[in-house]
Amino acid sequence: MATVSGTLAAEDRLRWIADRLAAEGTVTIAAAAEALGVSEMTVRRDLEELEERGTARRVRGGARAIGPEPFAERTQANAKAKGRIAAKLAPLVPARGAVAFDASSTVMRLAALLGDAQDLTVLTNGLDTFGALNGLPGVEPLLTGGRLEPRTGSLVGPLASRAASQLSVEVLFASAAAVAPDRGALEATLDEAEVKRAIAAGAERVILAVDSSK
User: Fold this and answer.
1) What is the maximum alpha-carbon separation in the chain?
2) What is the mean pLDDT of residues 146-169?
3) Strand 139-143's sheet: what is its strand order?
């Protein structure tokens, strides 16, 4: 790792670390401190800031990049764990009423487990989830609309958030890009987070479905 001449200002350090994360996927505190000519404590504070911005997730000794993953890749990752999670969620889905599914690959697996649905409306911002729900007996899927995020297959933006806020649901089933004990669920993009917040605002409760990789 090349050494940077001189000590960089905070925003320059953050940009440098973000560039390394984008290029390599991970960065260690020790290597970043040496390259930037600052203390490891300074790098830790920088990583905390990047985690707050949703571009990094701190791990032991450094951080790894957080970014939108293609839906096909997310579907294959930790497939067995996601299947077990969906099986545990299924009994929590009512046969009637209105619920919401986010665009996650974990929650999409619920579509195959709605055999008891009789008059169930399901709001989602996930194109793949909508496709999995469409045509199921006793299920009326609703798509939020909005701008397609091609990397994740989800619909985001002001239109998606506004549409999501118009429907009150009994429960929102959602996953997350990461989970932090002190900050809760984190998303890979601000747009994705805004849509989930809009749906959650109209939900009586939110059930978060994440596997150990988060």
Assistant:
1) 66
2) 90
3) 139-143, 119-124, 96-101, 169-174, 203-208
